[in-house]
Write a structure and sequence with these properties.
14% of the residues lie in helices and 53% in strands. The chain is mainly β and 292 residues long. It starts with a helix and ends with a strand.
Amino acid sequence: MVRHRLKEWAVERENVSGHLTRRRVLAGGATALLASIAGCSGATPFVGKRTERAETVPVDGAERLVARTDLGDVTLRAEERDDIGVRITKQASSVTAELSDLTFRVERSGGDLVLRSEFTGDTEFFGGRPSMSFDVTLPRSLPVSSVRSSVGDVSVEGVDGDVDAETDTGDVRLRGVSGAVRAAASTGDVTVTGPDAIRGARTQTGDVTADVPDLDGDVRVESRTGDVAVAVGDAVDADLRVTTGTGDVSVSGVSLSDAARSDDLVTGTLGDGGPALAIETRTGDASVSPLN
């Protein structure tokens, strides 16, 4: 009887031990999965290389500012200052990447002062090309002409100038620009708030939100796949056309004469008419409301 109970106890212990072992394995797998997910979401510390530094660039009679980077974010904002402050962030997901292959350049061409990145190395097979982001503060007296990133967000706030802002992959945000603006992205959202006037806003995949207090010529505000929302100033004179391929069209709160409406198209005259204001999406909703 004792020998039989000892055998049962040994079998039970083995089963419990095996069950705990399996639980440990499953827990370990779950932990690894969570760690992997956290790594993808940015919850874990950055793995790779990263450097930051600040530079000061004299204006030296420049008439306009231009910013260019192939891979990285660009942020511009105006402050009460006499020179240009640039915080440069370089980073790479690979620990073997050479951040020194990515350099910051200041060039002068005519009246343009150009801030740009230059990559002189080889693109790594696994790590990819490192990125360089600019965070720029500039004098209010220096107009901005052009801002571009190939892959990264573009943000411009409180500057003067007829700004042309563009990225291939990323969001574009223009806020409080004293000038006529154009904003464009291939994949990303486009937001234009409080410009003096607009020359155009577009994206292929993403939403477009734009204030239109005035037009600089014929203007298109459009997305291929995404919603388009436009707020129009009460002093705008334009021939309005709002259309969607798949979605809803809404025009409300604005004075529109000679209006023609259908499910996917609204046309009419704003004010005295004049330049064309075309608001279009192929897949998404298109809406017009008054600019408060």
